[in-house]
Amino acid sequence: MNKSAYVIGVDFGTDSVRALVASTQNGETVASAVNYYPRWKQGLYCDPSSQQYRQHPLDYLESLEAAIKEALAQCPADIKAAVKGISIDTTGSTPVAVDAAGTPLALTPGFEENPNAMFVLWKDHTANDEAERINQVAHSGQGEDYTKYCGGIYSSEWFWAKMMHVIKVDVAVREKAVAWVEHCDWIPALLTGNNDVKTLVRSRCAAGHKAMWHESWGGLPPASFLEAVDPLLVKYDKMFTDSVVSSEAAGTITAEWAAKLGLPADVVIGVGAFDAHMGAVGADIQPYALCKIIGTSTCDILMAPMDATGHLLIKGICGQVDGSVVPGMLGMEAGQSAYGDVYAWLRKLIIKPMAALMNGDLDPQKMQQYEDKLLAYLSGEAQNLPLKDNDILVLDWFNGRRTPDANHTVKSAMIGLHLGTDAVHLFKGLVEATAFGAKSIADRFENEGVPIKEVIALGGVAKKSGYAMQVLANVMNRPIKIVQNEQACAIGAAMFAAVAAGVYSNVSEAQKAMFGGYEKVWEPQPENVAYYAQRYKKFLQLGAFSENIYA
């Protein structure tokens, strides 16, 4: 196929969706647009005090259409006519209850304002008890351990736990829901018109990492296991059997969506995946490269040849799945439940009381300017602090712990506070905490037999905080390569669209043509590596002590 074709990569984030139009010839972005979810922006359907985070499907629908239209409006007619494919990535696990036609219940009469009928966002932790129940049954010694390919610990952030929580607490949703669908599966189903829950395409990425899908037991866990966890789950044991890698096509765009978006009728829609997995491809991930997508939280992606690592059972990660990143490779996922959110916590701690005390004396725009500048100021001051062994030490578990060894009931802790501790010292401790959490993930992979040959970073924090990246390089004692493209997840989705549409025969070809390179490499500072190594040992000791308190 003509390599001068164009594709659209769509990246659904926590707050917004981005649509990017890219050349398949060289990956150049010719247009892009961002649209923020209006209901989410208002804080609707969420209750942070109970860790409930829900998103209305209309936010996704409206923002998807708006973002693609805005991006295409920047393109001349010949580029629009040359669009060959669209692929999407989303946060995950972000499932929703649907009826037999694959319609999210929040789009059906009587459920429009019911949070339980909406998408349960990745960071929703209302299902901690349900995750613990899944683990109890899986580890009971009675038959197969269906968590063994997802790190041996099932998380409240994942598919079955969220489903189980909702159907336990909401009878109306339980009676109406025919199946559950991940966000990354629903959008391709919508665009292709294949909404029927019996036939819609299920992503290998989502199914393997979050839904305990595995070929060795024929797909999803059997009814006997689900019944032992909770009899309410049994009706869902045959939701789907097969899963499909994201280099494949989910179908062709419907006439309705083609007309709505102003696209050709033959545009191919690729199979969806999670943002981090497509982002890793957009960052040119290669075997044994640890790719860190660093934003509000992190997702760490590592891949290796199946013949070298397929026999391993890696403890405490977010799953190992054949083909979840690149077909033919074992895709491994880990991550931290909070990274940039840890820094944002301090910003809110400082700014919110100021805003309240000003009581309107300072206009919101000016206050926003202060908020935008605060972390840059703290970074500048923190990097000039002398490195002292008794500086404040912090755990990064502000939103629980994703990996290694998922436990979303643990909390952060701090030691070393004194009357001389100020905001800069606290910020230094927070940055170190996130870097120490990152190192614990890398150590787990290597201790479990998967070597790491290089570290790649992308995302907002990686691009914007040089101080955080320098500390990370020192803590990990490795160079950190920063991806040039600010929208690596969207360009990764575009690469997959190019393969699904037949422009390239495989993902590697698309990467070689469309990857835009690295902008910087943060090298570890030899004079500081030993300091951080000693601090890391104390971090592990603090974690063990703190976790024991909450046990």
Provide a descriptive summary of the structure in words.
The chain is an alpha/beta fold and 551 residues long. The protein is 40% helix and 17% strand. It has 20 helices and 20 strands. The strands form five sheets. Strands 1, 2, 3, 5, 9, 10 and 11 form a seven-stranded mixed sheet that branches. A seven-stranded mixed sheet has the order 14-15-13-12-18-19-20. β14 (320-322) and β15 form a beta hairpin. The protein is globular and about 65 Å long. The model has no long low-confidence stretch (mean pLDDT 95).
How much β-strand is present in the residues?
15-25%
Number of DSSP E strands: 20
> DSSP helix count?
20
State Rg: 23 Å
Biggest sheet character: 7 strands, mixed
Distance between the termini: 58 Å
User: Strand pairing plus helix content: what structural class?
Assistant: alpha/beta
- Tell me the overall shape: globular
On the 0 to 100 scale, the average pLDDT is: 95
> What's the helical proportion of residues?
40-55%
Unreliable segments of 5+ consecutive residues: none
